[in-house]
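ok so heres the complex, two chains, lmk if somethin looks off
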Amino acid sequence: MSAPATPAALLAMLLGSFSAPSAAASEMGELEQFLSGPDEPYRAELRITSRPRQGDGSVSRLVVQRSDTGDVRQIEYRLTTNGVTRHWCLRCAAAAGLRDCPMAPQARSIDLARDLPDTLLPWEELVLGACGGWTITPLPSAPTAAAPSYQVDFRSLGPEQGSRSALIAVDASGVPSSIEHRNADGERLRTIRLLETGTHAGFTGARRALIDRPDGQVLLELRNIQIGPPDRNWRTE
Amino acid sequence: MITHRREGYRLRHLVWDGLRLRPLRAFAAILSIAVTLAASLTLIGVSESLETSVAEGYAARKVDLIVMQAGKSNPLTSRIDTALVPAMRALEQVARVQPLLVDTLLLNSDQSILVYGWEPTDPDLRLTDRPNAPLRTDEVLIGKTASRVADLSPGDSVTLNLTEFVIADTFEANTFAESGTLFMRLDALQPLIGAENRVTFAFLELVPGLSAARQDELRLEIERTMPGTTVIDAAEFIADHQLAAALRGVSRITLFTNAFLASLIVGTLMVLTVSERRRDIAILRAVGWSSWRIAHLILFETALLAVAAALLGASIGWIGLEMALSHLFSLGFYARSMLTPTMVAGAALAVIIVALLGSAIPVYHALGIRVADAIRNE
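and the predicted structre for the whole thing:
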């Protein structure tokens, strides 16, 4: 099954389904809708609580603002930890792939192979959902299983990022309940538990997700979301 | 006098015969009206009890004004700078300021809980077994309802947003909202949620005897000198309390819907009764019964049904309210029943009046029966 134009990852799940389901979405039902990224511009605020197995943890505030011009999608990230704010901006288009925003020289380049600074949240969790692509395959389930599970194969965003796949378990209503990410060798990288879903600005999605990694845990909480045209002054708030 | 007694006797017998001959209809009428009354009593009782519980909680804290961030439709997302607190304390009209930070945290990786952060010296953080020692930053207090629902007791360890704390004590809250929460130190909650130097509210207790005009002046002064804040009267804040306001709205809609339903049920059943007794009514008219006496017959029968329904409905409603509050208590909402026997009696009386209003159509229908037509059609 081919991926829709706006693919999936954690941020898309946190924000929920934003658009009318495509033909592919109608086939895959609730899961496909949940994985579909937003069609409309939005601004979301997330709280990221990182607790490494060793060392001190951190609490960060991440504001994500997305706007679209034609086929080009622009996403800006503003991360604040301990009063220090950092800014990133990227653009993605089907033809040109992923690149930095030309009009935002102050913004840093995103290193997909790493975590957001001071957090245990991998960059790819945010970027895959906004700029990647995926293929979903239903997995054969045991007759006694309450709900089916799926394998999602993500399209690589760059040479430094190897292929990724995830096993997604859904609940009885078709909403994902957990996502297990694996590398090309099939080793588990992290498990995401979607703890709470709810409706923000008329869109249903996850409000709280807990990521278990071998080196610690990350709690993501959607604090606020606004749907609408981009706010030009958002960096000065 | 003797004539009147005999006429009264006959009227009662006619009504009794009407009910006795149609027991199923009488039962259906009584049950339907009783259920509408019971549902209304339960919902209004829950709404009133929760709202009063919130009001009592703020009154116990002596909260007169609440300062929060302007433009926030959800008060829990308000954030104001703690630097404003000393400025508020410096105001001569203000007797006490209680800053409070509120947020919903992840408890033990599988459930959410509302957490209140108070200043370390706040009386809300007082421990029963060590009243002179402040709560530590790695300790929390748990509301009794939260303690029961989450099966947590003093001495237990809990994780809140991935950080470990110890439950030091339980507390007895006097509002339905607080009994299901955790209390902790403000300086422990702020870094836990990345809200350093921020609080959600500042509760202001004003000096005694401050006039309403002076309170309004104070509100304006705070909003003018502390930009980005709004000052709300505690009563106004309670009225806007989301859960209480939602319940109030639902209960009012239910009340009007149920009153209309009760009226409709009575009207329909009595129209049916009048239709079946056309011949009886025509004979009564033929033997000289006045329109008023015919109307009296229908009203009396309606009143009998309504009284029985009111007694049954009030009893079910009272029991329903106690069960609803008990269920809410098990879910973490503490509220004591605010219904009094006078209120229940008032509701029952209202049902009787509504039922009598519902009998207007059957009365009109009965008075329109023409003796000759009714007897000929038989």
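quick notes: Residues 71-227 of chain B form one domain. thats all i got rn
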